[in-house]
Design the sequence.
């Protein structure tokens, strides 16, 4: 079979692959708990579903403007403005089929072959592949568990080269849940812009922060230097809308025009019905987001208390998102030797699906998504804890 050179090194997304595997085993009757994919377990709030039903009844079923219906672009611009007190114009917004699609299109539009992209590691597993698909070269900047999986400007400095063009920041982070403080974030943004780099700030987990303070955003830097910053957000995580596929990117209007031109040759507009649902989400009440955040915080506390009690396992307390990223390398040796073998072992013996840290750039770790009901989380973690203890003996 002929396959393009571009695709030869690209592997399927492991988060989605593990999820499919868990669904398949469940369909065959196996009692599997999946803490694999990062997906809220809540139903999409009712008022959002109602808006979608209305859109169908009104036959809002035709092509729309490629970058999104004007009222949705405005709602996304207003969302940024209301969250961060910086005005954004609708022509600085493109609506894509999820955050992933927006990032993909941005990279295709922005990178030239050979451009280096700094990616703090552990990283969300799709960044490197998307960079490569755009002809770019991922350059990883490794942050370790002792430093809470956060990078510093000194670490970024070492990875800088004349070819560096872009830095991707992701706070709250998938897979670690780390949230940079205002000060840490500001240092990194200033460092990048002073070095003439462009920053893509993936803020998809912005609403899921448990520090009592908002997560720092790159929007103030966009306001100062719109030709050097892009900010990504979307509805999947905050409004429990993963399947609807709605993300939005804020960037310089000229860049947005090019992204839209490209999108016009691939997907065209995203689903018209999903756009109406997204409009209802962004212009409607935010208390549903607040309720879900409270539940995630409760589960974070519950999950963290459990993993912190496991001897020999290190896990910095995550301040955001819905993941625990645990360093489990002390169990490697006799029966399992890496994170992939460990996850296979845990699927077979604890009946819990997890994602190996190798997929996120750290083979010492495994990722737990705690976006499941409290009792399910408890059951899954006790089963995993038992197996890890047995592997250590
Ligand atoms: N972002 C989520 C995760 O990491 C959803 C799956 C994906 O797109 O990677 O599990």
Sequence:
């Amino acid at each position: 079979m002929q396959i393009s050179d571009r695709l030869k090194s690209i592997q399927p997304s492991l988060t989605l692959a593990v999820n499919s595997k868990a669904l398949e085993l469940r369909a065959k009757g196996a009692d599997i708990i999946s803490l694999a994919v990062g997906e809220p377990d809540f139903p999409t709030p009712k008022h959002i579903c109602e808006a979608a039903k209305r859109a169908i009844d009104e036959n809002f079923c035709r092509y729309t403007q490629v970058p999104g219906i004007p009222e949705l672009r405005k709602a996304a611009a207003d969302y940024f403005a209301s969250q961060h007190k910086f005005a954004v114009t609708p022509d600085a917004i493109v609506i894509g089929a999820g955050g992933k699609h927006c990032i993909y299109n941005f990279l295709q539009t922005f990178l030239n072959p050979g451009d280096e992209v700094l990616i703090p590691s552990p990283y969300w597993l799709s960044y490197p592949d998307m960079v490569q698909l755009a002809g770019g070269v991922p350059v990883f900047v490794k942050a370790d568990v002792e430093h809470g999986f956060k990078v510093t400007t000194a670490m970024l400095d070492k990875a800088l080269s004349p070819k560096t063009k872009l830095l991707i920041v992701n706070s709250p982070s998938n897979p670690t849940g780390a949230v940079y403080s205002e000060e840490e974030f500001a240092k990194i943004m200033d460092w990048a812009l002073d070095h003439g780099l462009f920053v893509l700030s993936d803020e998809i987990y912005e609403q899921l922060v448990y520090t009592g303070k908002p997560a720092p955003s790159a929007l103030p830097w966009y306001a100062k230097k719109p030709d050097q910053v892009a900010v990504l957000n979307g509805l999947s995580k905050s409004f429990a809308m993963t399947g609807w596929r709605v993300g939005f990117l804020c960037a310089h209007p000229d860049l947005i025009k090019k992204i839209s031109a490209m999108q016009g040759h691939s997907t065209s507009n995203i689903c018209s019905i999903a756009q109406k649902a997204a409009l209802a989400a962004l212009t409607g009440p935010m208390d549903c987001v607040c309720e879900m955040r409270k539940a995630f915080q409760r589960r974070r506390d519950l999950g963290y208390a459990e993993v912190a009690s496991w001897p020999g396992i290190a896990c910095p307390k995550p301040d955001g998102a819905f993941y625990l990223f645990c360093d489990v390398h002390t169990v490697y040796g006799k029966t399992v030797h890496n994170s992939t073998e460990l996850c296979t072992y845990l699927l077979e013996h604890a009946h819990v699906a997890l994602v190996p840290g190798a997929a996120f750039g750290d083979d010492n770790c495994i990722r737990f998504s705690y976006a499941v009901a409290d009792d399910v989380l408890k059951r899954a973690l006790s089963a995993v804890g038992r197996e890890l203890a047995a592997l250590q003996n």
Remarks:
- The chain has a mean pLDDT of 95.
- The radius of gyration is 21 Å.
- DSSP finds 14 helices and twelve strands in the chain.
- The first strand starts at residue 33 and ends at 34.
